[in-house]
Amino acid sequence: xxxxxxxxxxxxxxxxxxxxxxxxxxxxxxxxxxxxxxxxxxxxxxxxxxxxxxxxxxxxxxxxxxxxxxxxxxxxxxxxxxxxxxxxxxxxxxxxxxxxxxxxxxxxxxxxxxxxxxxxxxxxxxxxxxxxxxxxxxxxxxxxxxxxxxxxxxxxxxxxxxxxxxxxxxxxxxxxxxxxxxxxxxxxxxxxxxxxxxxxxxxxxxxxxxxxxxxxxxxxxxxxxxxxxxxxxxxxxxxxxxxxxxxxxxxxxxxxxxxxxxxxxxxxxxxxxxxxxxxxxxxxxxxxxxxxxxxxxxxxxxxxxxxxxxxxxxxxxxxxxxxxxxx
Length: 327
Ligand SMILES: Nc1ncnc2c1ncn2[C@@H]1O[C@H](COP(=O)(O)OP(=O)(O)OP(=O)(O)O)[C@@H](O)[C@H]1O
Ligand SMILES: [Mg+2]
Prior knowledge:
Elements: E1 4-9, H1 17-30, E2 35-40, H2 47-51, H3 60-64, E3 76-77, E4 83-86, H4 100-112, E5 117-122, H5 128-134, E6 141-144, H6 148-169, H7 175-184, H8 195-205, H9 207-218, E7 223-229, H10 238-249, E8 254-260, H11 263-271, H12 275-278, H13 283-298, H14 306-322
Parallel strand pairs: 1-5, 1-6, 2-4, 2-5, 6-7, 7-8
Antiparallel strand pairs: 3-4
Helix pairs in contact: 1-13, 5-6, 6-9, 7-8, 8-9
Bound molecules: adenosine-5'-triphosphate (ATP) and magnesium ion (MG).
Adenosine-5'-triphosphate binds next to α1, β7 and α11.
């Protein structure tokens, strides 16, 4: 069985990645899918809390320290027989700084896990390791709110991800790698380095390598999910955002989901329980199920007109809820 891997990342912290990873995993399991949800937020692991589990399980740290030879022996069963949890580094401090060989071993072994969906809860920001977990698949999930800072941090994440993908596509120990590092260290006067600039600079040295790097980069198609939304009009920013993604980052992304801000989430965090146990009928519980259902139907397909689709869906949903028809 080849699993659909969904790494869940964000530029800014606190946007709801762990909440989403846990509750989407539960929703997918309830839809009958075999799911594993793994905590890859080393140094900040709290996925177990969102799942309503205690912090007692050996996890990835124990695998990397060779206390357990196989990741699958570390899978924790949950209330739902379709859902398993893989803990992070509770018993192994400083794993966020794991070295390259450990990371590659982890990535290889995560890909071997048998399930239909493997959800990865990542730490926020653009550390190399986080970018590499995000790059395990071409279709990662980015979570953001509609606030300016959150969107800007997401764009920074994507730009650094582009640089990382391009860097890893280059032949090793060549002049090209050196050139790339020099480009990263431009002085303020020289302006901001864009993905296009970087590829153009590479093309001046080796056209074929630059073309391959561009092809590799443009094969990624992240899916953006907006969380903590209050009003669908917040999504009016989508056409502009789409243009920025295409022009500045040479990237096509799909706008995949819209989740309401809801006090029920706060209560589930306070009570350290999964959302469906606290309030299965809350608006956000419905949003999570709609998103899980959408994932089962559409995750592997590129979406057309995703910005206008999401905006219309969000507006309809908002109207239905306001008039009481959505309940
Ligand atoms: N839809 C929502 N409505 C209301 N509050 C929310 C929602 N989603 C998340 N939150 C709140 O946001 C806070 C952060 O959530 P969470 O820990 O899942 O974010 P994160 O992105 O994983 O953070 P970190 O970057 O620290 O790992 C929590 O207190 C949670 O209650
Ligand atoms: Mg988190």
